[in-house]
Design a protein that fits this description.
Layout (H helix, E strand, L loop, with lengths): L1 H9 L7 H14 L3 H13 L6 H17 L3 H14 L5 H12 L3 H14 L10 H11 L1 H17 L3 H13 L3 H12 L1
Length: 192
């Protein structure tokens, strides 16, 4: 069914319905997770002045990187994530997926530094909640100095933009620092 639809939609090229056909093709390729063909369609849509699709192409590259990472093709995943960062430099997802890749490769210190560097990007404070658990886990594995750094980082993030993910990570860090009163204070504050 998709093959026939694809063939029919491609025949719209050069007609007044070309843009509608491209939108339908994009839907088909995204649904089929054919990221390379979806990328080609977004480039054609940009040529037709239908907008900027760099964020979408960044997403496609990240999806391919996740697949490569899950297949333990770490070098390919790293290359795809680098391409994703170049495609949409303001997107936070390639950075988060890179942290996931480094954790998978057992590179905790590299992942730690990358998480801390996200704070300086200041592009998506809510995205930091996505890595709060990793920060807490890494800090607990690496000792007191990292726990203190994680505590300060998570406190700043929680004050800036409270979220349940950051709260849970902060409570875990406070508990690991043997500071149950602070953990309890954050939990009670959240309930108010």
């Amino acid at each position: 069914l998709y093959d026939r639809a694809e063939t029919a939609l491609k025949k719209l090229a050069g007609t007044s319905l070309e843009n509608d056909g491209l939108i339908a093709l994009l839907f088909i390729y995204e649904r089929a997770q054919d990221w390379k063909l979806a990328t080609e369609v977004t480039r054609q849509m940009e040529k037709n002045a239908q907008g900027d699709f760099s964020g979408r192409r960044c997403h496609y590259l990240c999806e391919q990187a996740v697949h490569a990472r899950e297949s333990q093709q770490y070098e390919q995943a790293a290359q795809l994530l680098e391409a994703a960062r170049k495609e949409a430099s303001s997107s936070i997802r390639p950075h988060i997926e890179t942290i996931e890749l480094w954790l998978r490769q057992d590179r905790p210190e590299t992942a730690w530094q990358a998480i801390l560097a996200l704070e300086a990007r200041d592009t998506a404070p809510a995205a930091l909640a996505l890595v709060a658990h990793h920060l807490s886990t890494l800090a607990q594995a690496q000792g007191h100095e990292h726990l203190v750094q994680a505590q300060a980082f998570l406190q700043r993030q929680y004050e800036r933009q409270p979220s349940l993910d950051i709260l849970v990570a902060l409570v875990d860090v406070e508990t690991a620092l043997q500071n149950p009163q602070a953990a309890q204070w954050y939990l009670l504050r959240q309930l108010q």
